[in-house]
Write a structure and sequence with these properties.
The protein is mainly α. The protein has helices spanning about 5-10, 25-35, 40, 50-65, 70-105, 110-120, 135-145, 150-160, 160-165, 180-185, 195-200, 210-220, 260-270, 275-290, 295-305, 310-320, 335-345, 360-370, 395-410, 410-415, 420-430, 435-440, 445-455; strands at about 225, 235, 245, 250-255. Helices cover about 55% and strands about 5% of the residues.
Length: about 450
């Protein structure tokens, strides 16, 4: 395998930058991911524990309103709740800006790519109220710290996170023979969503050899998992289905007092299941190399996953060290966020440009165009996250939105354009085609030339 620094930045990183030198070896790439997380410190995103303070404030304001209906105090609490809602909405847009800033300024871009990949693998978001703004704090707390750890640790961190329990309707799942069900009332039904997605999406994969019985038994084992009103994880024994549960021919539970340790035991086993190794290997290979990855690459990733008990640092090393991952032709189409963020990196967008954007302007220049390209920020269509297939990103509407953004938005984000005759090479490196070089040189204005480079087919692929 011959290492290509330009391809490394485009395929495994955040795109080429005119100011940040690309890594010169796979060892440097991997060492960068292992070092302290400088971008998280420089461009902070609120951790989930801090977001819980917002939730607590909202609960307090609602309690004041209920206890003091019709009073000035209730009116003040209502206004304070509206301010809290607005501040949290603005913060969510600001966190998007921080995600982009990390892409623009990092010298360890593989970390940002891995974070985005795993955040999508464990998609979760809130459904109503303040919690619908919590996806970035969830990723910051449950996903980002684990990208070079064991898959098992990330699996538990994500699946047992209160946002995931909320998103997949687990919080009110009650065993049919539980103490809670015997009392009657509203909370007496079991929900299979979390169990199904853990098997189908998070671990074994949709084509693995599990049955509906496995789904139901796992759902029964998960009963008791919930969260408090402040979104702390909680296991309620009175919700839990009594007795043993059998998942993939292994038996769990059965003790007198149901316990969360039974849930952790099944997650431990699922994380080490051979089908999980195959599923994760395939998904990584597709994401980084193409819709039809080389079988040898998938096999190498699967073997490394199994041999290391899901050590993600070792699995990542197997990915970037495999010859099949370095095919010179750019294949995968960039998803919408990757396109926008890599464009900002190619432009060396100043770090203050995005945080200084007023919320409405940020939505007009970033959030809305991203949606037109097919990615509705932190509003997933389902728990399976974003599509990997290239066809999903090159629809007529999506391509038109990319072209429109490339031509019009960069000049609204920064004052002076780069010279397109230089920009075409700094943004594309050796992948700049003769046609793109000519278009950049012949453009009527500098901004037109920059836009043509960003809209070029080569810039759309990794």
């Amino acid at each position: 395998m011959r290492f290509d620094p330009h391809l490394a930045e485009i395929r495994f990183g955040c795109g080429l930058s005119p100011t940040i030198a690309p890594a010169q070896s796979t060892a440097q790439m991997l060492a960068g991911v292992a070092k302290p997380d400088d971008m998280a410190a420089r461009f902070p995103i609120e951790p989930f524990a801090d977001f819980q303070t917002r939730i607590a404030q909202g609960i307090e304001f609602n309690q004041i309103r209920r206890k003091n209906r019709g009073s000035d105090e209730a009116l003040a609490a209502k206004k304070a709740r509206r301010v809290l809602n607005k501040e949290t909405r603005i913060a969510q847009v600001g966190w998007l800006g921080q995600h982009i800033n990390r892409w623009v300024h990092t010298d360890t871009p593989l970390r940002e790519r891995l974070t985005l990949f795993w955040a999508d693998h464990f998609t979760a978001t809130g459904k109503a109220g303040l919690i619908r703004r919590a996806a970035s704090p969830y990723v910051e707390t449950a996903i980002r710290p684990h990208i070079t750890g064991r898959f098992e640790d990330m699996l538990m961190s994500a699946v047992l996170h209160p946002l995931m329990l909320h998103y997949l309707d687990q919080a009110h799942s009650v065993g049919e023979n539980s103490a809670q069900a015997a009392r009657g009332g509203k909370l007496r039904g079991m929900n299979e969503n979390l169990a199904r997605e853990v098997l189908e999406l998070h671990t074994l994969g949709v084509h693995a050899a599990y049955t509906q019985t496995d789904v139901r038994e796992l759902a029964e084992l998960f009963t008791g998992l919930t969260h408090t009103k402040f979104f702390d994880l909680q296991f309620r024994k009175q919700f839990a289905e009594p007795g043993t549960e059998t998942v993939l021919e292994r038996t769990y539970g059965g003790t007198k007092n149901p316990h969360i340790r039974d849930v952790k035991a099944v997650l431990h086993d699922l994380a080490r299941h051979p089908a999980t190794a195959r599923h994760i290997a395939t998904k990584l290979a597709v994401h980084f190399t193409g819709d039809t990855p080389d079988p040898a690459l998938v096999a190498a990733l699967e073997t490394r996953f199994r041999d290391t008990d899901g050590d993600l640092a070792q699995v990542t090393a197997a990915l970037v060290e495999h010859p099949a991952a370095w095919a010179p032709q750019l294949q995968n189409v960039k998803p919408a966020f990757n396109f926008l963020a890599s464009a900002c990196r190619a432009l060396a967008l100043p770090s203050g440009a995005l945080p200084q954007l007023e919320e409405r302007l940020a939505r007009r220049l970033i959030v809305r165009p991203m949606g037109q390209m097919g990615h509705f920020w932190e509003k997933p269509a389902g728990p399976d996250g974003l599509p990997e297939e290239d066809a999903a990103w090159i629809s007529p509407q999506g391509v038109a939105a990319r072209l429109q953004w490339a031509i019009t938005v960069p000049q609204q984000l920064m004052d002076a354009p780069p010279d397109p005759r230089d920009f075409v090479h700094s943004a594309l490196g050796p992948h700049a085609t003769a046609a793109t070089v000519f278009a950049a040189k012949a453009a009527e204005s500098r901004w037109d030339g920059v836009g043509l480079v960003l809209a070029s087919p080569a810039f759309q692929r990794t």
